Amino acid sequence: MYTFATRFLQLMLFLMNGKMKTVNKEKLPQKAPFVVVCTHKSWIDVVCLGIALYPIPIHFMAKKELFSNPLIKNLLTKLNAFPVDRSNPGPSVLKTPLQLLKKKQVVGIFPSGTRNSEEKALKNGAIHIASRGSVPIIPAVYVGPHTIKDLLGRKRRFIILGDPIYVPKMTKDKEVVIEKTNEVISKVFKELKSNV
Q: Is residue 115's pLDDT more than 50?
């Protein structure tokens, strides 16, 4: 289902908007798990990230509210999404992504571009997951239209990937590790956006 959906949406977006450009795909770890953290404002950037990384499947972390409808829950599950309680994150939030990483899968996390407190919490989650899973974080930035109207306006779409960020194991100085890694991620996001 994931492959079919990715190919179908790739075709639909191509017909509406032309070809998307993926920059620095060679920076992706080969045959190894990682956590990809991408900027996020609409469903379009989620779809474009999936297209950019294809044929590597992404297991998307999504807010649990999206899974309240049984039909949507079934669809999201088939598209490799799994629920997380963003308002009350606890140790259980790490369980599913760490299991996926052990199976050499890729986990995708989308910090919100509009709610700063949630963005920080999600980045912290990505840092904890990458550290415990001993995998790198791949920063990604989407630049392009965020609405159907803008897609039809033929505004170009880009996914720009950054260098892998390696997070050390959490120690007694874990707050320092989190703070410094957050600073690196934020800086990389800005630098990648400025390259377009």
A: no
Q: How many angstroms separate the CA atoms of 25 and 86, rounded?
A: 29
Both tokens of 98, joined, read: 């760490």
pLDDT at residue 120, as a whole number: 56
Strand, helix or coil for residue 135: coil
- Three-state DSSP state, 92: helix
Give tens-digit pLDDT for 157-186: 999 999 999 988 877 677 888 888 888 888
Instruction: Reduce the DSSP state of residue 39 to 3 states and report it.
Output: coil
Question: Helix (H, G, I), strand (E, B), or coil: what is residue 48?
Answer: helix
Instruction: Give bridge partners of residue 36 from the DSSP assignment.
Output: 108, 138
The residue to which tokens 């997951």 are assigned: 129
- Per the CB < 8 A criterion, the answer to whether 66 and 76 are in contact is yes
Q: Are 143 and 157 in contact (CB under 8 A)?
A: yes
Average pLDDT over residues 74-94: 79
CA torsion 77-80-135-138 (nearest 10°) is -130
DSSP state of 166: P
Q: Which residue has the tokens 């950037």?
A: 45
